[in-house]
Amino acid sequence: MTLLTDETFGELEAIAARYPEPRSGLLPMLHLVQSVEGRITPEGIEACAEILGISAAEVSGVATFYTMYKRKPVGDYLVGVCTNTLCAVMGGDAIFERLKDHLDVGNDETTADGKITLEHVECNAACDYAPVMMVNWEFMDNMTPTSAVRLVDDLREGKEVTSTRGPRLCTWKEAERVLAGFPDGRVDEGPGAGAASLVGLNLARQNSWSAPSGGGAERKDKSIESGTAETKGGAVAQADTSRAETETEQEEGKKSD
Ligand code: FES
């Protein structure tokens, strides 16, 4: 039975109307379908096709191409573990194995209570906080097998959990509604960018560096002549040292876990 009501149809039409070319709204429309149906259903595909005046096959082609669109029901919390190279060697593989055991599910499977869907994900461009996990697309940084188990247990028990760089976590359906373009008022919660991501920016500010506006070769020669390059080398060494210190601290944290 479809859960798509007249109100949802109205919202799907409103999304399409945001764009000069209505079919540009297909991606957020599919997120809205997921927020209501818990997955991409045949009825959701038909609704999008009808509103956009395209075929169901065209909608289906998009829905099956992107991994954020799910054909099977998703639990209340979609828990992703990055197992791409850097996260894997920093502990992502161990986290994923521990969670599979703890939750008694495999990749892309949901716990019997319908609370957690576990999946391994590719690089989230968050390698400076490896190993990272995502819950409903929000970052959980510097994870360990122990903290990962604590995280899913808290979610299953209904405790309030906050992303390490974002807002309080909501359910997957609620997050899907945000991705469809209907804000939940939490956009300003959390720090956004963390210290590790800002090391380069802070170094640039301390040294009054700025991006060249053009004429790169000439500018490079001038910086070498003025000794800026030497300063830069010293700063890079400083950045390496601070990164190494951070990693050592993380490693010590993991051991104490
Ligand atoms: S490898 Fe995991 S975020 Fe890049």
Pick out its properties.
single chain; 257 residues; alpha+beta; Arc Repressor Mutant, subunit A; Glutaredoxin; five-stranded mixed β-sheet; 50% helix; binds FE2/S2 (inorganic) cluster
What does this structure look like?
The chain is of the alpha+beta class and about 260 residues long. The chain folds into 3 domains: about 5-65, Arc Repressor Mutant, subunit A (Orthogonal Bundle), CATH 1.10.10; about 75-180, Glutaredoxin, CATH 3.40.30; about 195-255. Helices cover about 50% and strands about 10% of the residues. It is built from 10 helices and 5 strands; from the N terminus they run ααααβαββββααααα. It has helices at about 5-15, 25-35, 40-50, 55-65, 85-105, 145-155, 170-180, 200-205, 215-225, 230-255, and strands spanning about 75-80, 110, 115-120, 135, 140. The chain has a 5-stranded mixed β-sheet with strand order 2-3-1-4-5. α3 crosses α4. It is globular and about 55 Å long. The chain starts with 5 loop residues before the first helix and ends with a helix. The model is unreliable at about 220-250 (pLDDT under 50). The structure holds FE2/S2 (inorganic) cluster. FE2/S2 (inorganic) cluster (FES) binds near residues 86 and 124.
